[in-house]
Amino acid sequence: MVKLEFGNQIVKIDAGELISYQVDGHEFIHQKGSPGWSSADTEMFPIIGPVNEADFMVQVPKGQAIQDQHGHLRLMTYSLIENTDLTAVFEKVYQANTKIKNKKYPKKSDKALLSWPYNFRFKKSFRLDSEGLEISFKIDGELGMPYMLGYHPAFKLQTTKPIIKTKDKSINLDEVLAVGSRALEVANCNEITLLDNHSITLKTEGFDHFMCWTEVGNMICIEPITFYPYRVKQQNLHEGFQNLDNEASFKLQLIPFIL
């Protein structure tokens, strides 16, 4: 367990997963064991979205990659490589074509092992300061490697009528619930605010969109993404890829209103 502290802010990270962000004792992060989701955050990489209708295959320049929903990165284990009172850096390293055990097999998938035909190194960094919590991602890998990236944090809800607000729209919880497992797209957006009894703003760099998901009333996931996967059929998911230019960086700032 890694713990970061700055003034009235406390962050707890378990094996690279953000499990707690408290400000003045208020908890912003969905807690494991509560209804809704068994995790608190995860990363979606190198794909976002399901591929069950495409026989769990994704087209890449090197052929077909065997993947499952949201990619295989989240099935790998982070290593802590740096840690101070205010920062923590975690890393996952993947060697091309290494077989990764699929936790969805056999109940939700017929693919026992997943793989990706490219090498990559994935870093997730946390930094706490007077403005809030910054979470950043760095991808190093083969030149031209196709990828999508999404960050999937879950926020604890304190009221029955929270509002998600962007610069030009407001979204209520019922609208997110109505979309169900597909998640509600919030396109062309790099700043979004969750208005609850204690509100928090998410500002991004590198991500182009958000999607919002929940199936319960006590939590909501507000997810920065590079591509919304339901724009295309699963067989055409490759249309949403970016191509790596040796490395790529992404950033999310969590800025609470009660600092």
From TrEMBL:
Subunit structure of this chain's protein: Monomer.
UniProt keyword Signal, yes or no: no
Name listed for the protein in its UniProt record: Aldose 1-epimerase
Domain of life of the source: Bacteria
Organism: Croceitalea vernalis
Organism taxonomic ancestry: Bacteria, Pseudomonadati, Bacteroidota, Flavobacteriia, Flavobacteriales
Essential cofactor(s): Ca(2+)
SUPFAM superfamilies recorded: Galactose mutarotase-like
Pfam families hit by this protein: Aldose_epim
Coiled coil feature spans: none
Keywords: Calcium
